[in-house]
């Protein structure tokens, strides 16, 4: 990893085997046929948004840049490929020298997207570009799914605090990427220490029922927690009886008690009762954190409840019903040689109706109306119309194999706020609907 | 990783930060209160199966053992915890020496489970057990979700070949674990090279539309592939016109052509036509591989089609609608000191109706009827009834911190076949239903 300045490593030494076998066998066949170095353009895009969703959120771009940089085959991997006869010796030798030396342009992280948006455009020789397909899609499909769910939850929460707590509900390393994507989508903190370590996302914690059950009484447990973590801590009040727990909590921590957490029951009702009780006890500044299978709909339904923060787990890290984005990575143009002077010819699959795609190297721009609100995602293959030049969405990410667009996570997080705010208001509706922008091909 | 004999490393040096912050702050508070070393029993279980599912499949146990062995805090991690003031200095010092030294019993990998089944029982001091909560749940929740989907697909495929192709649809490291879980659930091969490298799962590959589009004609592409990969390769025949592609494929590779892949269109219809055409061309041994958004229902609906292998991606790695298993890890009993002579007292959350659990250290057994078919999952906290002693489900996995139950992946895969075969026939129905075994508490 070469992004130590943006966080710490919780990772893998090489990303080269996060790859479907056919990427390597295609390289082998193309090397033998003399077509491996044909100049090629691949694009990552999705044919549709998940059903009912009104916009997508680009996330994972920063991780893609890490993955491209770390895509190299070490000796042990090469030995594996040789011993298992995954590819022939000539290809193993070629892979030993592999580094991506091409160019990548794409939607910057945090931007919104629509069906057909060319999210990433990868250019180089066929062989160097095709190898990156699997890992690029893994990252974009996962991270963008989580960011989209996070963005909806963040709309629903209307500025209240959102804590990402889903680590236990997904693969341990998905969880780290999910925290990152959730942060981009508008979450404020995470419970996942690895996400704090790797990405500098602020980490928080409360306590579990086990901590209360460990002690001889709830009183002992609360005292132990306050003694060690201070009055500003968050006490979990639903192990035995909520009203009694709240009374005990304020008795022990005083009105300076940081927060109480409610993790079961009718959250709307219980939050109201707990708020009233806290206020009566003088703990008017003590906050209420709710958790328990929340999703964007549950968050929205608690808008009228006196809740200060939502802890969200399962539904966040599984994309709230849509754990992946169906992005694909397609060859859209290629030349007949490696010669930069050779013209790029658009190519596209034609058979069987479904799954066809549009050939040609694409640009994308977002047209706005007289009020500055986005009105269309415009995609084309020729010259960019003058009125759209300033509204182009793709930025340069990698030039000649060098990453040129690293940025702090906050930049992507801020960009998402701006991009979402530029969409028609109906983008924020949680109900099912069509994409809020039409995609126009010119 | 200490399991080099079972595969190679694609991993992380330490699993200790795949942990929610509150696990560490609870340890801090318990250390200060003098309760951290109380002898404790935690159990991982689920309160319900995903809606409509008839059985669950235990997967991830082997990865849990790796995670427990690799759960230690290195200097960089300790510095992070200290600098970010996640916990106090006394706790950082305690963590520096942390190794799990307790015992773990559990359902062996590949076994089936039901609501309440105590899948993992972790015993030791409170502090050493509570720290493992997050990573244990991450692994079991993810891997078991994939294995359950794989098992249903494997029932539906009735012995036909199943290829795991989902790497691009999920996080790049989830993908590796998903391949592993799918293999346990009955898949035969994977496209994911990292899964082959790490777990010795057989890897396979075909080719993509990009390979055909790279070349000046489909004929050139097929020739390039056959020249390099041999006649036994799998040619993708739906880039332009399927009938023409099949004709060209057999012309180039001869009747020894390994297989053709169909990735779009009405698979039932197209498979029939392609089979007829292949047979007419004399390629009677050439196999047909279908891919394209398959799930267990699509696989079942293709039972009458002349299909030899199914490549499954999205729906497999996202658990076919249920990407996580809602497993929890609960303190069920604890003593009042670390003294092994001190009695274990059952404990359980009581508040607010939902989410309550049963206290006490549990055993589990599967009772069978006169025909040897399973009829109930029996769970108890006292002595095991004589008739069930031989039918107990938990096995010893870790003794005094040492892993004692490592096994090859094939053992878990074989165990699943046996366990599923022991269930009532209705377990194999794909339609929604109740768990096929009732859970009885004695």
From TrEMBL, chains A, B:
Pfam families: NAPRTase, NAPRTase_N. It comes from Streptomyces halstedii. InterPro entries: Aldolase_TIM (IPR013785), N/Namide_PRibTrfase (IPR041525), NAPRTase_N (IPR040727), Nic_PRibTrfase-Fam (IPR007229), Nic_PRibTrfase_pncB (IPR006405), Nicotinate_pribotase-like_C (IPR036068). Catalyzes the first step in the biosynthesis of NAD from nicotinic acid, the ATP-dependent synthesis of beta-nicotinate D-ribonucleotide from nicotinate and 5-phospho-D-ribose 1-phosphate. One of its GO terms (molecular function) is nicotinate phosphoribosyltransferase activity. It catalyses: 5-phospho-alpha-D-ribose 1-diphosphate + nicotinate + ATP + H2O = nicotinate beta-D-ribonucleotide + ADP + phosphate + diphosphate. NCBIfam families: NAPRTase_put (TIGR01513), PRK09243.1-5 (NF006698), PRK12484.1 (NF009131). Residues 162-330 form the Nicotinate/nicotinamide phosphoribosyltransferase domain. Keywords: Glycosyltransferase, Ligase, Phosphoprotein, Pyridine nucleotide biosynthesis, Transferase. This is Nicotinate phosphoribosyltransferase. Its EC number is 6.3.4.21.
């Amino acid at each position: 990893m070469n992004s130590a300045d943006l966080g710490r490593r919780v990772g893998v030494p090489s990303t080269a085997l996060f790859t479907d076998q056919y990427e390597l066998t295609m390289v082998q066949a193309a090397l033998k046929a003399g077509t491996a170095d044909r100049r090629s353009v691949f694009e990552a895009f999705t044919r549709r948004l998940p059903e009912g969703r009104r916009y997508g959120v680009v996330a994972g771009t920063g991780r893609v840049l890490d993955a491209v940089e770390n895509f190299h085959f070490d000796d042990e991997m090469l030995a594996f490929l040789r011993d298992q006869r995954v590819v022939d010796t000539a290809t193993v030798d070629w892979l030993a020298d592999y580094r991506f030396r091409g160019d990548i342009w794409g939607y910057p992280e945090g931007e919104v997207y629509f069906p057909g948006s060319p999210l990433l455009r990868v250019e180089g020789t066929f062989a160097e570009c095709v190898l990156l397909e699997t890992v690029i899609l893994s990252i974009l499909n996962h991270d963008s799914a989580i960011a989209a769910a996070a963005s909806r939850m963040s709309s629903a929460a209307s500025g209240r605090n959102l804590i990402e707590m889903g680590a236990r509900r997904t693969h341990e390393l998905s969880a780290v990427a999910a925290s990152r994507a959730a942060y981009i989508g508008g979450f404020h903190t995470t419970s996942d220490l690895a996400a704090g370590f790797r990405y500098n996302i602020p980490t928080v914690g409360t306590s579990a029922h086990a901590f209360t059950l460990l002690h001889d009484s709830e009183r002992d447990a609360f005292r132990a927690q306050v003694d060690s973590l201070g009055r500003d801590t968050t006490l979990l009040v639903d192990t035995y009886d909520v009203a009694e727990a709240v009374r005990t909590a304020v008795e022990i921590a005083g009105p300076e008690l940081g927060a109480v957490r409610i993790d079961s029951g009718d959250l709307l009702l219980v939050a109201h009762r707990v708020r009233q009780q806290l206020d009566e006890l003088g703990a008017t500044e003590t906050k209420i954190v709710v958790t328990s299978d929340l999703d964007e709909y549950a968050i929205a339904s608690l808008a009228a409840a006196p809740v200060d923060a939502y802890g969200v787990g399962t539904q966040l890290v599984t994309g709230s019903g849509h754990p992946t984005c169906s992005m694909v990575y397609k060859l859209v143009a290629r030349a007949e040689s490696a010669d930069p002077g050779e013209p790029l010819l658009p190519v596209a699959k034609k058979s069987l109706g479904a799954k066809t795609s549009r050939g040609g190297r694409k640009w994308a721009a977002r047209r706005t109306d007289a009020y500055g609100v986005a009105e269309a995602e415009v995609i084309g293959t020729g010259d960019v119309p003058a009125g759209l030049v300033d509204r182009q969405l793709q930025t340069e990410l990698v030039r000649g194999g060098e990453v040129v667009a690293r940025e702090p996570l906050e930049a992507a997080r801020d960009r998402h706020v701006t991009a979402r705010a530029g969409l028609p208001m109906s983008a924020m509706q949680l109900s099912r609907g069509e994409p809020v922008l039409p995609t126009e091909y010119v």
